[in-house]
């Protein structure tokens, strides 16, 4: 009887030990799947013009993840920081991640102006595209990306969001990040690397 009790006790301890090992393993490995950037909403479809005067639509990005920012070349407030961060990301993110800078001042930001702006920021034109178009088209893109902006005047500059968006290879928004916040930018890099390494949403 004593031996039977001893075997039962040993078995219970073995089960408990295995359970504890499972908990520890779960803490070590499970968070990766929990931290997968979730799908937030569909990204915008668009047909605009790039810095080379060429037609550029979201179809050019099919199967490619990208990050997007809304800026304008004469902006003196948040845009310099946003574009500087895009330049940094160009060098830090995997080559398959594209970068898109949408101009919210299309009347003044012609392809030629954007071409010079791209050169100033050492943009790799193979993956960093500066887009312009008519006012209604730009407004529609910003609206669909859930980043509204307000037109400026002689006395008031254009107001727009400081956020940078992460879009996956299926044209889905996977994250929005404040370009003025270091913690957000660190998270953007982590999420973009994850998305680039898991095409098609594969885990």
Automatic annotation (TrEMBL):
SUPFAM superfamilies: Thioredoxin-like. Pfam families: SCO1-SenC (PF02630). This is SCO family protein. Belongs to the SCO1/2 family. Cu cation binds at residues 75, 79, 160. InterPro entries: SCO1/SenC (IPR003782), Thioredoxin-like_sf (IPR036249), Thioredoxin_domain (IPR013766). Residues 37-194 form the Thioredoxin domain. Disulfide bonds join 75-79. GO terms for molecular function: metal ion binding. Keywords: Copper, Disulfide bond, Metal-binding. It comes from Humisphaera borealis.
């Amino acid at each position: 009887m004593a031996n039977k009790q001893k075997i039962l006790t040993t078995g219970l301890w073995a089960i408990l030990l295995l359970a504890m090992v499972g908990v520890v393993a779960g803490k070590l490995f499970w968070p990766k799947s929990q931290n997968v950037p979730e799908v937030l909403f569909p990204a915008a479809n668009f047909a605009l013009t790039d810095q080379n005067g060429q037609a550029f639509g979201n179809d050019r990005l099919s199967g490619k993840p990208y990050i997007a920012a809304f800026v304008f070349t004469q902006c003196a407030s948040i845009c310099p920081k946003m574009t500087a961060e895009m330049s940094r990301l160009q060098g830090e993110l995997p080559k398959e991640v594209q970068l898109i800078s949408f101009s919210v001042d299309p009347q003044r930001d012609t392809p030629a102006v954007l071409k010079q702006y791209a050169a100033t920021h050492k943009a790799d034109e193979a993956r960093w595209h500066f887009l312009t178009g008519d006012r209604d088209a730009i407004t529609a893109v910003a609206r669909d990306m859930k980043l509204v902006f307000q037109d400026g005047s002689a006395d008031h500059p254009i107001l727009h969001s400081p956020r940078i968006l992460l879009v996956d290879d299926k044209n889905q928004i996977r994250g929005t990040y404040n370009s003025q916040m270091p913690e957000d930018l660190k998270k953007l890099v982590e999420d973009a690397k994850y998305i680039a390494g898991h095409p098609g949403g594969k885990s």
